[in-house]
Design a protein that fits this description.
The complex is a heterodimer of chains A (506) and B (231). Chain A is 75% helix and 0% strand. Chain A contains 20 helices and no strands. Chain A has helices at 2-10, 14-39, 41-48, 63-66, 75-106, 109-134, 139-153, 156-167, 170-180, 183-198, 203-224, 258-270, 295-300, 304-332, 337-343, 345-365, 369-387, 393-424, 432-464, 466-505. The longest helix of chain A has 40 residues, at 466-505. Chain B is of the alpha/beta class. Helix content of chain B is 26%, strand content 23%. Chain B has helices spanning 5-33, 45-52, 202-223; strands spanning 56-58, 61-64, 73-78, 86-87, 98-100, 108-109, 122-126, 138-144, 147-153, 171-175, 181-185, 189-190, 196-197. A seven-stranded mixed β-sheet of chain B has the order 1-2-3-5-7-9-8, with helices on both faces. A two-stranded parallel ribbon of chain B has the order 4-6. In chain B, strands 10-11 form a two-stranded antiparallel sheet. The longest helix of chain B is centred in the N-terminal third of the chain and has 29 residues, at 5-33. The radius of gyration of chain B is 27 Å and the shape is elongated. The chains are: A mainly alpha (506), B alpha/beta (231). Chains A and B meet through helix 2, helix 3, helix 4 and helix 11 of A and strand 11, strand 13 and helix 3 of B.
């Protein structure tokens, strides 16, 4: 064991480390800027609306300080628009994911990645800072900029995963990707801290800092990223005899978090050939490359539809927490926006721990769906508990971390479970293209579900209040569990059957 | 003192706006002083007040200049016997300490006429009208010779027994004319709804950031990409 451990590590050079860190931090910065938007929602809606008077007393003077901005007449309308912006962003992000694979096919990975990072940074600067400095508030401008932002950001994820795929072959991928997929949560935490520190100077400065940092990240990536070992003449690590898709460790293999899988299809598109070199790893004669499965065939594979729908529900809840939590905390408990931002970090901490721990547990058990189902059941309880949280920051943080553990965990795990299960299916054994296409379907459905959910959350909140939003989340988590139950039965019956077979043999 | 180019830009915009305001103000001041014919006589209330204050008369106004080169401003206004029936605004006279509107058949005196008139300490109105802001806004209210004299404008912020004048967070109540108040931001706060606090430390944030970016880029380029072959 120790020798293989050391052998495992010795195949990595400092180039691997840099590639890991650069791709990790690219996605961290991207998520940080998304988090900035959600964390300054209260300040932005205050900027867009005139002051509200409780009784019929006259408006405050001077008008320039209290009354003059009326992009929206009141906070409710502003909230609805913010929900619409989230939806618009997620839809354009989902569309962009399909398109960026095609684009990345023809161009250098590094250029596309930098273009995405820097372009998105410029658009965010225009959205948050420039508009405020010019005092030019316009609904169509906001929507247009945010669509552009979604399209530009969608270029980043496929390329970072493609680069990771180039550098880390199958033998080390499970552990490395598991560690690497914490980047989204780390990005959320960083974004929350940046936003809360800069918020007191004005929300436009929060946008300014995150977009400048993101742009700087793009510059560093441009100068420092090697997209593949081939660029420095390193040969790709030889695969050390791990049978593809059969052992349990391989279930970690393809990609741990949702969008990763989908990138396999973009990987092959993005890196124009680097990835395919990794395929013939054994000494067997190279098989003819598997025909890519069509969209409809992939959609009809058993389990795909169920997992897609389950993931749509779960990603809705996960993203709603991500986008709306600070707003909820400050409007429900009256806490200052900066405090609420810091508190929302605990959800991400819970998610990181949940993904890791539940991944380990399901590894040991060898089964994923039961772990998911149990976690989702407990998540419903956690949501109920959180919706009744007292007005106390410590208790709230603890409940938040628990909720993040039970919701973020399955969300991170669902995609690895999908790829594992699908990879084992008879019909598509060994066909990478099926994996990628299927993950694309699952993640695309998830993103669309999340997109629709954002608008629903703001609508429910403005008409019915926050308690109904929590009921909606609980309903969605339950729905996700309902879709997973058939898969649980299937896995449990397989386990049962295997146990009967082995007892018979004894 | 921050010397960001943002400050410079806003300074430029402010000075241009101020120039235009100044020019229009000058024109408006002249306008209000010529609202009706005649001039201020020595034996009137305003005439005596003007002499005492070392101001000079121009039309129906008493003007004052702090220093040569400063713009002149109105400290007294006498529009008595002007056949005014409709007083909607007295633009340009917001700095006045004494305003005389007596002997006018005023039917409509708009509520917001005296908004912003924080210096106004004596107001003479025809007796059919009430002191703006009610009697509670003034220290002394007298009726003399067919006119109402409202004296010693009170600071509405200090008064108890009024509906609670809660200014929103980060702002303080300040008087803004008889019966009016304004909420102005506290010392450190500024901006719309007084939400912004302090000055953004641009140098402290962008200095280290720029330096780090440059250093890391060079370091990575030297260790990683310098030997990269185009593939």
């Amino acid at each position: 064991m120790p020798s293989s451990c050391c052998g495992y590590l010795s195949q990595y050079t400092h180039h691997h480390l840099v590639a890991f860190l650069l791709t990790f931090f690219s996605y961290v910065l991207l998520h940080a800027s998304r988090k900035t938007f959600s964390n300054v929602k209260v300040s932005i809606s205050a900027q867009w609306t005139p002051s509200v008077q409780n009784d019929s007393s006259p408006a405050f003077s001077p008008g320039e300080t209290w009354e003059d901005n009326h992009l929206f007449a009141n906070m409710e309308e502003a909230t609805l628009f913010l929900g619409a912006l989230d939806t618009i962003f997620l839809f354009s992000y989902a569309v962009g994911l399909y398109v960026s694979g095609v684009i990345g096919d023809r161009l250098n990975l590094r250029y596309v990645l930098c273009f995405g990072l820097c372009g998105s940074a410029v658009v965010e600067f225009a959205f948050g800072t420039l508009v405020e400095w010019l005092h030019f508030y316009n609904i169509y401008l906001y929507c247009g900029l945010w669509v552009l932002n979604g399209l530009l950001q969608s270029a980043v994820w496929p390329c970072v995963v493609a680069v990771m795929g180039n550098w880390f072959g199958k033998s080390g991928r499970g552990f490395v990707f598991g560690l690497w997929s914490a980047c989204a949560s780390v990005g959320n935490i960083l974004g929350a801290f940046l936003a809360s520190s800069m918020l007191k100077y004005g929300y436009e400065y929060a946008f300014l800092v995150t977009s400048v940092v993101q742009f700087a990240g793009g510059v560093v990536v441009f100068f420092g990223l090697l997209t593949s070992p081939k660029e420095v003449g390193l040969s790709l690590e030889s695969e050390t005899g791990l049978r593809p898709v059969e052992s349990d460790t391989d279930s970690h293999r393809p990609l741990m978090s949702d969008e990763e899988e989908e990138d396999e299809v973009e990987q092959e598109a993005c890196d124009g050939g680097y990835y395919s070199i990794q395929q013939p790893e054994d000494s067997e004669p190279p098989e003819p490359s598997p025909k890519a499965i069509t969209f409809c065939q992939a959609f009809c594979l058993p389990g795909v539809l169920l997992y897609s729908l389950a993931y749509a529900c779960l990603k809705l809840v996960n993203y709603s927490f991500f986008f709306w939590l600070p707003f909820y905390l400050s409007s429900n408990f009256g806490w200052k926006e900066a405090q609420a931002d810091r508190l929302s970090v605990w959800y991400d901490v819970g998610g990181i721990i949940g993904g890791t721990v539940q991944g380990l547990i399901s590894d040991c058990l060898g089964k994923r769906a039961p772990v998911l189902a149990v976690s989702l059941l407990l998540a419903m309880g956690a949501l109920v508990g959180y919706s009744h949280s007292p007005n106390d920051q410590v208790v709230n943080a603890a409940l938040l971390a628990t909720t993040g553990f039970f919701i973020g965990g399955p969300s991170n795990m669902i995609s690895s479970a999908i790829s594992a299960d699908l990879g084992r299916q008879e019909a598509v054994r060994g066909s990478k293209d099926a994996l990628a296409t299927v993950t694309g379907i699952v993640d695309g459905t998830g993103s669309i579900g999340a997109a629709g959910g954002q608008y629903l959350v703001s609508l429910i909140e403005s008409k019915l209040g926050w308690m109904w939003v929590f009921y909606f989340f609980i309903f969605m988590t339950g729905g996700s569990m309902v879709f997973i139950i058939p898969l649980v039965f299937r896995e449990v019956s397989v386990m049962w059957r295997d146990r009967n077979v082995s007892t018979h043999q004894l | 003192m921050n010397a960001g180019h943002i400050q410079l830009k806003s300074l430029l915009i402010i000075s241009i706006t101020n120039y235009y305001l100044f020019v229009t103000c000058q024109l408006t001041e002249i306008q209000i002083c010529n609202r009706c014919n005649g001039t201020v006589l020595n034996n009137t209330i305003l005439g005596q007040f003007c002499n005492n204050s070392v101001g000079f008369v121009k039309g129906r106004c008493c003007l004052l200049k702090d220093k040569t080169g400063d713009p002149e401003y109105v400290i007294g206004l006498d529009l008595s016997n002007c056949s005014l029936s409709n007083v909607v605004d007295l633009q340009g006279a917001s700095t006045a300490e004494l305003i005389d509107l007596s002997f006018n058949p005023i039917v409509i005196l708009s509520d917001s006429v005296f908004q912003g008139f924080i210096q106004l300490s004596r107001l003479i109105l025809p007796s059919n009208l009430e002191c703006p802001g009610g009697n509670v806004s003034w220290g002394t209210v007298k009726v003399e010779g067919g006119n109402i004299i409202c004296e010693e404008q009170r600071n509405i912020c200090n008064q108890t027994g009024q509906l609670s004048l809660n200014c929103p967070e980060s702002s303080l109540c300040a008087p803004y004319g008889p019966g009016f108040f304004e909420c102005s931001c506290t010392a450190n706060h500024h901006g719309y709804k007084c939400l912004r606090e302090g000055e953004f430390p641009a140098v402290q944030v962008f200095g280290p950031l720029g330096a780090t970016t440059v250093v890391v880029s060079i370091l990575l380029w030297v260790t990683q990409r310098r030997k990269a072959k185009s593939v």
